[in-house]
């Protein structure tokens, strides 16, 4: 094994730029987006996509709204050639979409590339050669002139073929591959030479694509290279500056964002970031970053589950559960304080206000996710999370004092069960703990009379029999409480009371929550009924039943 020795690496040599302006820029409009899923993404797969997978992926890209789609490297593979032919012959490309194909700057490959494009309405021919010092010296074994010559001859060849097929609307694209490893002045020199061949105009631009083929520096250094390039390149008004970043240092999106601020117009990337090594720049993340700042990304990313599903099935790669905006856990909070804050903010959030919810940079509903999955309860969760889940799923708006009582019960269950507690289990634990109004005593018939004081007479069903109780008070609840106190020879004081209509599952029921002090001990009860008075007296009975059960257990012991 070689030693872990950082001294064998050299730092990146930054371009010398004065008065850089990009740090003060903001991204306020979407760039031109180009998808390279079917080419750069595809060439990085263990098993490249089949034609059927490419067809499905292409449809997704069109639906998402890409207007430039790199569909393959037709001169390199028969499958890519056939797929390109299928798109054209079967008229699969919408009129406003350019299909783009990649080729090396070699005449025989360029010729074959044009064969694949015969009959296309609109196409981008993307030609590249590597310009980096490393590749010049070790791969091509050529000096700068030799490398420039490859680019110029390639550009000329692309132009010559295009002239033979005026029926197609051609756009030319050149990439000085390994741009980040190329002296920026030399990259400008090569691109200027290509531009000189193509003679673009502001009306008929060509694309100069600057790839971070390998990400070798912090994103600010990349932005410096882009701003420098934009200042120096010829005919700036006649070229579209495109970026194609990779993610070797984990900053592919950041580099593209800063590059855009530095003057670029167009961004190449893939949906969810598949691509060579650590992947291409993830278009979903970059576009959603804009979206979260109130900028229209001009891509329709609302059906995130479809995007995830198509990308996964076509690439056969999993999507990380914490992948920005798309992973299955990215809108889910388990920890108590996060849940508490989210629950409070969501209560305040209305559709007419700008989004302002702690821990949620965007509204999960915008990408087809629901609030149900925002809060999931495990042993790290607090009362807010439990309350949120019960309210979302069952319409139970537990008062704060009852949340405090229920939370440790759920936490204990989670610790014993070792994981996430589903809403169904929370409801069952809530019912078992507090909806105890039918055992050992259940409310039978009762009647209320209103006079100076309210009077109640009620039957309590118990062990196959029935006992009658009666009491007086200032209202139904206090009359019933007095009757229970009298019958069981206990002192019952109502400390807390709350009720609300139930909107989930029923439109005519109500729930009452009661906290009672019984002989100095605190008990909590809840009950649901069509009638709110019945619900409230059953909730009181629930607390008394807990006291009675506790007393009988104590006497057995
Ligand atoms: C950063 C990127 O992602 S770039 C895209 C990379 N994608 C791919 O390579 C996938 C498809 N490519 C392929 O299948 C093959 O490379 C093919 C079919 C295109 C060509 O295969 P081969 O003819 O065997 O050539 P190979 O790619 O190995 O390169 C051979 C020669 O072309 C030269 N070459 C490589 N790239 C280029 C280029 N962009 N322009 C001109 N010449 C080039 C090499 O220096 C080499 O020259 P040499 O034979 O004189 O030493
Ligand atoms: C062909 C170029 C643009 C490329 O894929 C890269 O440099 O990563």
Which secondary structure elements does this structure contain, and how are they paired or packed?
Elements: E1 32-35, H1 37-43, H2 51-64, E2 68-72, H3 78-89, E3 98-104, H4 107-116, E4 122-130, H5 133-140, H6 144-163, E5 169-177, H7 184-198, E6 206-212, H8 219-232, E7 239-245, H9 252-261, E8 266-269, H10 283-291, H11 304-315, H12 336-348, H13 383-394, H14 400-417, H15 423-434, E9 442-450, E10 454-462, E11 465-473, H16 476-488, E12 492-501, E13 510-518, E14 521-529, H17 532-556
Parallel strand pairs: 1-2, 1-8, 2-3, 3-4, 4-5, 5-6, 6-7, 7-8
Antiparallel strand pairs: 9-10, 10-11, 12-13, 13-14
Helix pairs in contact: 2-11, 4-6, 6-7, 7-8, 8-9, 12-13, 13-14, 16-17
3-methyl-2-oxobutanoic acid (KIV) binds next to strand 5 and strand 6.
Tell me what the structure shows.
This protein is 40% helix and 19% strand. It is of the alpha/beta class and 557 residues long. Strands 1-2-3-4-5-6-7-8 form an 8-stranded parallel barrel, surrounded by 8 helices. It is elongated, with a radius of gyration of 34 Å. 43% of the residues are buried. The mean pLDDT is 96. Residues 40, 102, 128, 175, 177, 209, 211, 213, 244, 246 line the site of 3-methyl-2-oxobutanoic acid.
Q: Largest beta sheet: what is the strand line-up?
A: 1-2-3-4-5-6-7-8
Number of helices: 17
Q: Pick out the low-confidence regions.
A: none
Distance between the termini: 68 Å
Largest sheet: 8 strands, parallel, barrel
| Overall mean pLDDT | 96
Bound small-molecule species:
acetyl coenzyme *A, 3-methyl-2-oxobutanoic acid
């Amino acid at each position: 094994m070689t030693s872990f020795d950082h001294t064998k690496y050299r730092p990146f040599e930054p371009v010398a730029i004065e008065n850089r302006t990009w740090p003060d820029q903001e991204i306020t409009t979407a760039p031109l987006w180009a998808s390279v899923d079917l080419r750069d993404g595809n060439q990085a797969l263990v098993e490249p996509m089949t034609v059927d997978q490419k067809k499905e992926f292409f449809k997704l890209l069109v639906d998402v709204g890409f207007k430039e789609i790199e569909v393959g490297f037709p001169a390199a593979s028969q499958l890519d050639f056939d797929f390109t032919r299928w798109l054209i012959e079967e008229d699969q490309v919408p009129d406003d979409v350019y299909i783009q194909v990649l080729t090396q700057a070699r005449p025989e490959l360029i010729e074959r590339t044009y064969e694949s494009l015969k009959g296309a309405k609109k196409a981008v021919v993307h030609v590249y050669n590597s310009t980096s010092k490393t590749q010049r010296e070790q791969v091509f074994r050529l000096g700068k002139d030799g490398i420039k010559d490859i680019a110029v001859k390639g550009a000329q060849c692309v132009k010559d073929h295009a002239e033979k097929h005026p029926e197609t609307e051609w756009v030319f694209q050149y990439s000085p591959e390994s741009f980040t490893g190329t002296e920026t002045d030399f990259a400008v020199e090569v691109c200027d030479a290509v531009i000189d061949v193509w003679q673009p105009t502001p009306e008929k631009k060509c694309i100069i694509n600057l790839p971070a083929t390998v990400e070798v520096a912090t994103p600010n250094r990349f932005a410096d290279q882009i701003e420098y390039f934009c200042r120096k390149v010829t005919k700036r008004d006649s070229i579209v500056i495109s970026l194609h970043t990779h993610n070797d240092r984990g900053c592919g999106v950041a580099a593209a964002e800063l590059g855009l601020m530095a003057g670029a117009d167009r961004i190449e990337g893939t949906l969810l970031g598949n691509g060579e090594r650590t992947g291409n720049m993830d278009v979903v993340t970059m576009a959603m970053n804009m979206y979260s700042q109130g900028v229209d990304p001009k891509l329709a990313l609302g059906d995130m589950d479809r995007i995830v599903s198509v990308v996964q099935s076509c690439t056969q790669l999993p999507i990380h559960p914490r992948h920005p905006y798309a992973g299955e856990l990215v809108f889910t909070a388990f920890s108590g304080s996060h849940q508490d804050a989210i629950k409070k903010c969501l209560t305040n959030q209305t559709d007419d206000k700008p989004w302002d919810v702690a821990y949620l940079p965007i509204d999960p509903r915008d990408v087809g996710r629901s609030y149900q999955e925002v809060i999931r309860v495990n042993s790290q969760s607090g009362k807010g999370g439990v309350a949120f889940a019960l309210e979302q799923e069952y319409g139970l708006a537990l008062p704060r004092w009852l949340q405090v009582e229920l939370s440790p019960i759920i936490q204990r269950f989670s610790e014993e069960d070792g994981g996430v507690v589903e809403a169904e289990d929370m409801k069952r634990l809530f019912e078992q703990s507090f909806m105890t109004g039918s055992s050992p005593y259940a409310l039978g018939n009762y009647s209320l009379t209103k006079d100076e004081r309210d009077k109640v007479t009620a039957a309590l069903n118990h062990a196959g029999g029935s006992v009658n109780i009666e009491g007086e008070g200032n209202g139904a609840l206090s009359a019933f409480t007095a009757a229970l106190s009298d019958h069981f020879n206990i002192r019952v004081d109502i400390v807390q009371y709350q009720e609300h209509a139930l909107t989930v599952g029923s439109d005519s029921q109500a729930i009452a929550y009661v906290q009672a002090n019984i002989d100095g001990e605190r008990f909590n009860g809840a009950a649901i009924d069509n009638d709110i008075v019945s619900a409230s007296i059953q909730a009181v009975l629930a607390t008394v039943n807990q006291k009675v059960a506790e007393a009988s257990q104590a006497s057995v012991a």
